Amino acid sequence: MASVSFEGVWKVFNTFVAIPNLDLNIKDGEFIVFVGPSGCGKTTTLRMLAGLETPTYGSIRIDDEDVTLTPPGRRDIAMVFQSYALYPHMSVRSNLSFGPEVRKESRSDLNNRVEKVANLVGLHGLLDRKPAELSGGQRQRVALGRALIREPRIFLLDEPLSNLDAGLRTHMRAEIADLQRRLGVTTVYVTHDQVEAMTMGHRIAVFDRGRILQVDTPAQLYRNPANKFVGTFIGSPGMNILPAELARDGALGRIKCLGSVFSVPAERFFTSTDLPSRVELGIRPDDLHWTKDAPSRCREHIFGTVRATETTGSETFVLVDVDGVEVNARFPSFADIRIGQKADLVFDPNDLHFFEPESG
Ligand code: ADP
Ligand code: MG
């Protein structure tokens, strides 16, 4: 096991700055997820940790050792890729025991090790099959097993579930998280899927355009997003962003938003006495309630027209047009709501998030 730190790490490809000045500490035994849209630098960061890319500036440490220039084979890291890269003509057993680290062992030690890993990843009884005779999930397990058999001190996974169908993905998500818990090995998991990130990580690093915008637990990311990007990226659907005007009125902040006017206790939301006059309000779809089902603490309203509605039986999603702004709401039950009907969405101002509009 090992801790990791990135210190002032940059990666520049020709003139393109893929990673500007990354600082990040990963704790020993932690399961950290890198999440963000495609092209935001997750793989590049992972490859720098693996030693497959060299940082243009800055340094990377594993425990107290500077590994910035250490070749990949000497970092004691195992990586699982999206394409499993199994050897098609070899059995599962041979695929598992093919690596240079394990080939040095005696035959009986190696057999023991293969059996142990096969049990760990659920491949028991399949060791003599070829990859073509396995399901997608089983092939994924071989790829995991092949990385684990080396007993690396750090385990890296880059979108390992992208090739699986939705049901299997959910299952493997739980399996990988469970495996990590049992082994306690420091793990970095890359995904563009926020649900995967939220359900798997001890902590999540949210990437956007080469930068980490927030590193936090899933609960903190959900409750206290550092900015609008994190708020809208996390959650399905993500946070609604509504334009608003703000004025201070004694101890209150007075807010005008989409035709409604209401107040919030200024101290609770704003540390500075100079309030920005324009803000963006964030509100989660599940913090908007349908009038008759609203908890009594919810006293403020947004009015609009229902544009779309969808129910799964246990949840109802509604898209409401409010003065041309699309607002998503999610209700925790079946709601009989029709397209075109007037919507009265009720909320508690304490559930609002305030973001300063980006300059420019
Ligand atoms: P992600 O894994 O988050 O989708 P990547 O780390 O693969 O993103 O890529 C980040 C950015 O760096 C992208 O704009 C990508 O095109 C660019 N990039 C990655 N590798 C190279 C490379 N070898 N040469 C040039 N540009 C690259
Ligand atoms: Mg990638």
Question: How are the secondary structure elements laid out?
Answer:
Layout (H helix, E strand, L loop, with lengths): L3 E10 L2 E11 L4 E5 L6 H9 L6 E6 L2 E2 L10 E4 L11 H5 L3 H4 L3 H15 L14 H13 L5 E5 L7 H18 L2 E6 L2 H7 L2 E6 L2 E6 L1 H6 L4 H6 L6 E10 L2 E6 L2 E6 H4 L8 E6 L5 E2 L9 E12 L4 E7 L2 E7 L10 E6 L5 E3 L5
Parallel strand pairs: 3-8, 3-9, 6-7, 7-8
Antiparallel strand pairs: 1-2, 1-4, 4-5, 9-10, 11-12, 11-14, 12-13, 14-20, 15-19, 16-17, 16-19, 17-18
Protein name: ABC transporter ATP-binding protein
Pfam families: ABC_tran, TOBE_2
Family: Belongs to the ABC transporter superfamily.
Question: Overview of this structure, please?
Answer:
With about 350 residues, the protein is of the alpha+beta class. About 25% of the residues lie in helices and about 35% in strands. It folds into two domains: about 5-235, Rossmann fold; about 240-355, Beta Barrel (OB fold (Dihydrolipoamide Acetyltransferase, E2P)), CATH 2.40.50. It has helices at about 40-50, 90-95, 100-105, 105-120, 135-150, 165-185, 195-200, 220-225, 230-235, 265-270, and strands at about 5-15, 15-25, 30-35, 55-60, 65, 75-80, 155-160, 185-190, 205-210, 210-215, 240-250, 250-255, 260-265, 280-285, 290, 300-310, 315-320, 325-330, 340-345, 355. The strands form four sheets. A six-stranded mixed beta sheet has the order 6-7-8-3-9-10, sandwiched between helices. Helix 4 (about 105-120) crosses helix 5 (about 135-150). The longest helix is centred in the middle third of the chain and has 18 residues, at about 165-185. Bound molecules: adenosine-5'-diphosphate and magnesium ion. Magnesium ion (MG) binds near residues 42 and 43. Adenosine-5'-diphosphate (ADP) binds near residues 13 and 16. It comes from Mesorhizobium neociceri. GO terms for molecular function: ABC-type transporter activity; ATP binding; ATP hydrolysis activity.
